[in-house]
Specification:
Largest sheet: none
Strand content: under 5%
Shape: elongated
Number of strands: 0
Helix content: over 70%
Structural class: mainly alpha
Order of helices and strands: HHHHHHHHHHHHHHHH
């Protein structure tokens, strides 16, 4: 009905008609889809008026996109069933810059190419199912994780569950030095990668930098005279009794991290709102300031080999290296250096400091610190009461791998 249509368009306006011009042009396509080409033309005209009021100029690419959409919808007003009168360059520009929305604009409900339209609608339905399924699974995992988290805290509080990070005979300063060496060499290697023309193999260079810096850091305690078996135990790199249960412990670690992650997300949203209030009026056509990893832009690449490299770095390299260095080496140093304090104080300080540093070194910016710190806290809980770092490695790998695959799937859809 007309009332339902207006309600839907109002909801889309709130969700999509914000941010940079590209996002607003996607909203124009949705207006054309639900209200017809004439309404899309009206929306385009309103967008141009808003840009003029804000003294905002479109980039050449944005201008070409707006002109192409205007040409499309003017053609559909005159002849709804006729193909869009665009040349090959304009058609490619719409598909490249607006993605699914650009292709949808070229396949109206009354158009001749219904096969292309059904393919696009099918992709949208699959994405909706993916999103709905992911939300259901996430909610179920969070509920299970909350039960696990509360159980662990209760057992630890009454002394039934003892710490797996037993005191080391090695001075904690040695492990602090090892962590500092890792930080320095990892940054140094990544800066060096900028000068090496690796082309499509650049993510393999990042993987090499991850492992080389870690090996150099772990070599430092050995150079200081610490036996390798002691290093392995102190950093939690050993295999425990019933090692075959580690994958299950890893999934349990991810589950108990999800309710903590939920708290981190709420804090991030509060900080985002507070930042908006403090910043005052901003450019209404700027991209929303939300934490995002630069690798997201690389995931958009059409090169499948690049995707597999990203997955290798995100789901293998980063979990192994970061868990060994943060939850293994750094957490060990912090726990041993604070053992003179109460146990709970030592644990909170160690989790807080290691989690904060873990969050800060990631490129998502300060707004991403609560979310990344929440994940780090969940991983540290598994390290504290499990002893080894393998459950947190598995949880970290599962999280990164799932996010990477989900992003890739959404972009492809």
């Amino acid at each position: 009905s007309a009332a339902e249509q207006q309600t839907l368009l109002a909801q889309l306006d709130d969700a999509m008609n914000v941010g940079d011009p590209l996002a607003r042009l996607r909203f124009v396509v949705m207006v054309g889809e639900f209200a017809g080409p004439q309404r899309a033309l009206d929306e385009l005209r309103e967008l141009r008026d808003k840009l003029a009021e804000a003294d905002r100029q479109l980039t050449p690419t944005e201008q070409h996109l707006a002109d192409a959409l205007e040409q499309v919808y003017r053609g559909f007003v005159a002849a709804p069933a006729e193909p869009a009168a665009l040349d090959e360059a304009q058609t490619k520009l719409l598909a490249d810059k607006l993605g699914w929305f650009g292709r949808l604009a070229l396949a109206p409900a009354e158009g001749r190419d219904q096969a292309a339209r059904q393919k696009l609608l099918g992709a949208a339905q699959r994405t909706l199912l993916w999103g709905g399924g992911a939300m259901f699974v996430a909610g179920s995992v969070a509920l299970v994780g909350l039960v696990l988290l509360v159980t662990i805290l209760i057992l630890a509080g009454n002394g039934t569950l003892s710490s797996g990070v037993i005191p080391s005979p090695i001075p904690p300063g040695i492990y602090a030095e090892a962590f500092a060496i890792w930080m320095f060499t990892f940054v140094l290697f990544n800066v060096a990668l900028l000068a090496i023309p690796l082309g499509d193999l650049k993510m393999l260079g990042v993987l090499a930098a991850q492992f080389c810096s870690m090996l150099l850091a772990l070599a430092w305690p050995r150079f200081r005279g610490v036996p390798w078996r002691v290093i392995r135990h102190d950093a939690g790199i050993y295999l425990p009794r019933f090692a075959w249960l580690e994958p299950l412990r890893g999934l349990a670690t991810y589950a108990l991290s999800t309710p903590i992650l939920g708290v981190g997300l709420v804090v991030m949203l509060i900080l985002t709102q507070a930042k908006g209030l403090l910043d005052g009026p901003t450019d209404p056509f700027a991209r929303p300031d939300v934490p995002a990893h630069p690798i997201v832009e690389v995931v958009r690449s059409e090169n499948p080999w690049m995707f597999w490299q990203i997955l290798l770095v995100a789901a293998v390299g980063a979990p192994i290296v970061e868990e060994i260095m943060f939850r293994g080496v750094l957490y060990r140093s912090l726990r041993d250096s604070t053992r003179s304090r109460r146990v709970l104080t030592s644990i909170i300080l160690s989790m807080g400091v290691s989690g904060f540093i873990f969050a800060v070194i990631h490129p998502q910016g300060w707004l991403g610190i609560p979310v990344l710190g929440a994940l780090a806290t969940g991983f540290a809980i598994a390290r504290e009461w499990g002893g080894t770092i393998w459950p947190s490695v598995i949880a970290h790998a599962f999280n990164n791998g799932m996010v990477t695959v989900l992003l890739f799937t959404l972009f492809r859809q």
